[in-house]
Write a structure and sequence with these properties.
179 residues, alpha+beta, 36% helix, globular
């Protein structure tokens, strides 16, 4: 890759990150450290992705506006975050009859968000990444589940997680492309 192209790509990424930070009120002071990853040794690991024909800033804003998840994700019946979206922030949401409290573990505006937490004996870690190329955004997600319930029923819970993430990606894509 040429030096000019590298500089242009870096400048574009910086401009997108600045626009996204302004749009979603992100505390950028806490955005350091190595990438947080899923538990590769967990009994259930699901990885999926989709492409979205919409600007990165729009897809990112839609996905990280937690208070608005109920407007576009039919599986979520309640969602709220207290304060700005930043590492350490907690948000509460309800999906598939489960009340969940998640903690943001990593946030790289326009590129990556990681959250996790326990629910009914299951420890989940959820990584979302966003990458734009030629006006199309690839949204990738990977999630791991560990704990006694998962060890007892890995196939059943793995199928449930896969279906849930397929639905989430499909609904995100549909809403983002409508805008």
């Amino acid at each position: 890759m040429s030096t000019d192209r590298t500089a242009t790509d870096a400048a574009t990424k910086a401009a997108i990150a600045t626009a996204i930070e302004a749009a979603v009120d992100i505390d950028t002071a806490a955005l350091t450290g190595p990438d947080v990853t899923i538990d590769e040794n967990a009994p259930v690991v699901v990885r999926l992705s989709t492409t979205v024909d919409a600007p990165l800033a729009s897809v990112w804003r839609l996905h990280t506006d937690i208070d608005s998840w109920v407007d576009w994700n039919r599986d979520i019946t309640r969602a709220s975050i207290e304060g700005p979206l930043a590492p350490g922030a907690t948000f509460r949401w309800r999906t598939h009859g489960l009340d969940i409290t998640s903690t943001v573990q990593q946030l790289v505006p326009g590129e990556r968000i990681v959250w996790g937490g326990p629910v009914q004996g299951i420890e989940g870690i959820h990584v979302w990444t966003f990458e734009e190329a030629d006006g199309v955004v690839t949204v990738s997600t990977e999630e791991s589940w560990a704990g006694a319930p998962v060890e007892a029923e890995p196939e059943l819970l793995g199928d449930a997680l896969r279906q849930s993430l397929e639905d989430w990606l499909g609904q995100l894509k549909a809403r983002a492309e409508r805008r």
